[in-house]
Amino acid sequence: MANQSDEFCDICQRMDISKPADAFCPQCEDFLCGACQNYHKVAKLLNSHQTISIVEYMKLPTFIKNVNIKCADHENIFEFYCKTHDNLCCKQCLITSHNDCNEITLIEDLLSMSALQKTSALDDIEQILKCLSTNIHTAIDDRKRNLYEIQQQKDNLLGKIKEKRREINNLLDQLEKSLLQELSEVEKESNQKMEMVIKELEERSSKSIQLQSDIALMKRCTSNFQIFMGVREMTEHVSSEEKHIKSICNGSLNNVTIECIFNDQLNTFIENIYTLGKIEMTTIKSEISFSWADDKTAQLYTPRQKARPFKDIQVELVHRINTRGHVTGCAILPTGKILLTDYNYSILIYDKNGGFETRINVKFSHAFSLAVVDECTVVISAGGWEQNLFLLDINSGNTIKEMQMMSDSCYGVSVQNGSYIVSTNRGIQILSIPLEGVTNIMTLSGDKRK
């Protein structure tokens, strides 16, 4: 394989020869060409060294490549490890900086004694990385779920906003229609009154014209005696017309105006409302559960810390849940949800904050206790006349399997490594429950085993 690096053989360079390196020896910290690698393999003092190809070396992390077996201060090879300061030391470091340290160990002894421990430390780191990868993918999936939910919520809110706009439009249309109808009625009533006044005035005008015509005719065609006798009659007609005209002018010639007085609440509404509503974003603590590896430092030589004494452990009440029914058992799902058995034919489900979610009604009596099999399945012990165990799907509420307990009343139940540990009236029974039936592995009654 062609050399793809810029490294040259260190041994050849010491002889002023430049040859591309084909391998690297971590113990010697030397790059080797093909020929020098062959000599390196057969040399008596070096044949235990494990070389790696230059291609593998280039793939190593930078911090591994930068590992130096020599002390930067004194240019001596590291030979000791100080547990007190967690430092590698050369001979001169030991004298100048660690003379008073009591936990000094030879590096050779540590490396030869801790091969298994080194592998275990790397396994621990690998396990942590696997957990991190799983948690990252879980978090990504959860964020994608939340993004989808936000899009669904947006679409739902768009519909609600448009519906609210339609409600407001319908209300305004109805109010406008009512006000326009009232305007038309007021205008029609005013017009009718004025048209009646105009009609009456026009009739009086016709009579006035007729009376004037009669006077002109009397002047031309009647004798003085006839005029004398007709003046009184004419005066009465004119006086009557004058009274009618005065009554019309005094009571029916008032100017009429129409205007709209808007509801005060509407003015307040217009002045004070600036938005149809407000979009709020609520942050709710995530209910997803992560699986974290043990917090190990992966230091090969760190002393184990002492466990805390039991007397130093402080217990405090974090939260109190107000339950419903006659609660006899409790279990927590991997999701954090809380399951409670109600002695009266049901299973109660609460969220991890203690908020009641739902009730699953079961067909067996006296649900005494329960234990989690997996995130969807629980096993329930029945203390009633059935005296059996029941596998229940908590998503559907259906009974998956009923397990006969040989006429023993069941109380507490637990699941450990595929076995079911049941407290009965005969003692503690450890059961293996394959699909075809129940196998009694062991019964413990007091100090005796059956």
UniProtKB/TrEMBL annotation:
PROSITE patterns: ZF_BBOX. Residues 4-54 form the B box-type domain. Keywords: Coiled coil, Metal-binding, Zinc, Zinc-finger. It comes from Mytilus edulis (Blue mussel). The keyword Metal-binding applies. CDD domains: Bbox1, Bbox2_TRIM25_C-IV. Signal peptide: none annotated. GO terms for molecular function: zinc ion binding. This is B box-type domain-containing protein. SUPFAM superfamilies: B-box zinc-binding domain (SSF57845), NHL repeat (SSF101898). Residues 147-204 form a coiled coil. InterPro entries: TRIM45/56/19-like (IPR047153), WD40/YVTN_repeat-like_dom_sf (IPR015943), Znf_B-box (IPR000315).
